[in-house]
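Q: Entry one of two.
A:
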Amino acid sequence: MRAEARIRLLVTILDRGRGDRAAELFASYGLPLHYAVPGRGTANSELLDYLGLGETEKDVLLTLAPGYTISALLPEAVERLGLAAPGRGILFTLPMSAVSRTVADYVSTQAHRIGPEREQSMDEQRKDHLIVAVVDGGGTDQVMAAAKEAGARGGTILHGRRVGEGEEKGAESAVHPEKDVIFILTSRGSLPSILEAVDRAAGISTQHRGVLFSLPVEEVRGLPRLG
């Protein structure tokens, strides 16, 4: 895939009911391919007033966009969605290692060509990271308690369901189908300690059977610099 057509995943987290505003903004850039899922925010109590990420219902949008739309889209998203003010929401972008050619062609054809994407060094791309923890339902408290103890500011919780081998009724390898997916944004420096703490509290060897991984984040809007 040519560099200027490289697809990014935009993740937008806003208070419930504000997702439509983000979808309208993305549509104005010719980005029709996005998915909205409900979520729940959680943060340390001392940050609630400042970040607005307490125990509140969230709209989480997952949007595919060519890299050449990012440099123009992000500043407008900050203005139109009010992300410069504390607690108004978060938007960040993730590089994608692969996407189907049909989807890439469709997204690139629909998107408005704003200009060339800004080249980023590998160091820039990995300044911040997104930790993703997938745990059996009911394990979110343990995940967030461990993550906050290790320095995480907060996270966003999605509810899901495991699919695949072992779900048949009565199968010996069956696991709880209900899953919680927790997103935690953190800096590169804090990444190892948070991963280790969450793994001890809710990893695959615990009753919560947590699966953990992290992804490099390219751009973050809506939060002060991660510590």
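Q: Entry two of two.
A:
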Amino acid sequence: MLPARKYYHENMEININNIQIISNTDVRWYLSSQIIWIGKEKNYDEIEELINKSYGSFKWLWSDSDTILFNKEDLNFIGAVIKLNEPIIVKSGGMDKVLLEEREGNIKISEERNFECNLSDFTEYYIEEDNLLSYSEKWDRANLSIEVKITSDFSVLLQNNEMVGILIYNASNHLLPEVVYQVDANENIDSSLCIKLGRFFELIEKIDNDDLTQHEELELKKAFLEIYEQVLPYNELNYIALKETILNVVDYM
């Protein structure tokens, strides 16, 4: 077998090898809490235990920093807990990837240390491609970045030797209700679900308007419930996640 190819950077080392630490079933998107959970850990207690064995950014209990974990033994990326900033901006058309240089493998830090990291200052959802992009305000999209595909559906974006974002392909397949800890391996994308999901995010953005009249609020509730009725017959996990979240939103209103 050929030796692993390595690309060295000042703060980050990218490994291109056959080792897969994370699988697609470990990439979870909890819609109601808008948390992206990467890795095999099922809850925050398990993350707490993992922190003692890791370097990285894990100040989520005390600050806005995202939790990014690297194994202390080999410095490999092993997981993340990322709270998406809202509103999620809905995009039509394809994502511009002209300035993304693609690699495959895993990432590892080059220094044994902890750091602060925000990968979720902005969030975009691309309906037609079913892609979810979450990124830092530090990311300069006009300059070259590296996309490291850690699984076929999950990538980390690097620029200037720093993590600046994540990209999830087939994102609606990774939607889960809060109590489920693993994504189904089914990779069939239902485009109608993507459209409903985009519509849901557009409605969520309107809720933040403090000047809503009582009539406008009633119309918003009706629009949410229309989506709910459309997805009600489906029992797949991603549909359940959307249904539960809609009911939570309507109750909150």
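A: Comment on entry two: Confidence is low (pLDDT under 50) at residues 1-10. The longest strand covers residues 77-83.
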